[in-house]
Each structure stands twice: as structure tokens, then as C-alpha cells.
């Protein structure tokens, strides 16, 4: 049982440090600007406490379960003679990791609410998950063939700027926000540890070099996928007007 709670004190401290500025700002606004009733003020504080505890349990679970599981899976597949199987598996794992990412869920619900349902949250979730899945597959291909990350990032961002000219301002804003949201704790902890484990099992590969820049790759492909979604919406809108 003691092993289950090992390291939770560090998570408690780190999450408390992250929450402290938000709580301080909220209390400041309550004292000088908002002036809510004490009942509503305490209600919001309880919500913050639940969010704090939930994030602590989530991050601790990620460190206990998903990180070692991803690393062991990567090492196990890396020792196989048919290592190419890691590419489609990386696509599936990347898709599922993004699909379960809490920050992505918050984003798609907020986008659907702000756009009054014009941008469907389920469609956006699928496109985001496909974007992350593609990036994880590319990261594995890079480990297998050992080419520079710049061969993906430079053309990728050039394509992103080209697609930005065809998408609406709404989709451009959502797309570049999606890149940061997709690199949440679920995706980073599981996918990064899996790719690093895969790299460590391959002779001649350097896990430190293979892992360097992978988050930049994961942040790129959701931008492209949402911009593509925006182009589809623009095309459908033009056809409807005609």
C-alpha cells in the first residue's frame, strides 16, 4: 500500500504551487471587485478544492501507471524482429491517448459552447485525436530511420501557414490553441515514455535525441488537423450559400 502513495507528496506540492496563483487572484477579485455572497464564494472554493484533488489523483495515477506501462510496451516491441508493427500501434495509442486527454475534453466542450454548436465537439475530438496519432507514428518512423526532426517540422509549419490563409479566424485561433492543449499529461506521459522505451531497445538509437523535439511534433499535427477541419467547414459553407 505504501508503494501506491510513493511520490504523491511531490504531486501534492507541485499542483498546490500551480493552483496557488489562481486562488490568490480569485480571492483578490472577490475582495475588491466581485463581492459575491459568502455562500457562493465558499461554493467556488469547494469546486477548486475538488479540481485540486482530482488533478493530484490523475497525475499520480499517470506517474504510477501510464509512464511505466508505456516504457515497457515500447521496450517490448523494440526487441521484436518486426519492429515496423510499432508504427500502426503508435497511431492507435496516440489516438486513444488524445481521446482520453482531459484538457482536450475541456477545449472541445468550450468550443462547441462558444460557437453555439456550429463546431461539433465529437468531430473536433476525432480530428484532434487523428492529428496526435499521426505525430506519434511519425515519431516512431523517425526512431526507425534516424532522420532529423526538421524534415517534418519545417514543411509542417509551412503547410500550417498555407492552410491558415484558407481557414477562418475562428479556426485559426482554435487550431493553434489545440497544439498546446494536445500536449497534456496523458499524451506526454504515455506516448513519450513509449517512444523512449522503443528507442532504448533499438541498437544505435539515442533515447535522449529521439525524445528531444517530440512534443513539438505532437503540438504541430493537431494544428494541421484543425486547420483541415476549418477548410472543410469553409467549403461546406460556400456550397450551402450557392
Shape, please?
flat
For the record, the count of structural domains works out to 1
* Total strand segments: 0
Q: Roughly how many Å is the radius of gyration?
A: 21 Å
Query: What percentage of residues falls in helices of 4 or more residues?
Result: over 70%
Order of helices and strands: HHHHHHHHHH
The low-pLDDT segments are none
Count of separate DSSP helical elements: 10
How much of the residues is beta strand, in percent? Answer: under 5%
The helix/strand class is mainly alpha
Euclidean distance between termini CA atoms: 65 Å
Please state the average pLDDT score: 88
Q: In this structure, how is the largest beta sheet organized?
A: none
Written description of the protein model:
Helix 3 (86-99) packs antiparallel against helix 8, helix 4 packs antiparallel against helix 7 (169-182) and helix 5 (121-145) packs parallel to helix 8 (185-200). The chain is mainly α and 242 residues long. The protein has helices at 8-34, 38-78, 86-99, 102-114, 121-145, 150-164, 169-182, 185-200, 207-211, 214-241. It contains 10 helices and no strands. The protein has one domain (65-241).
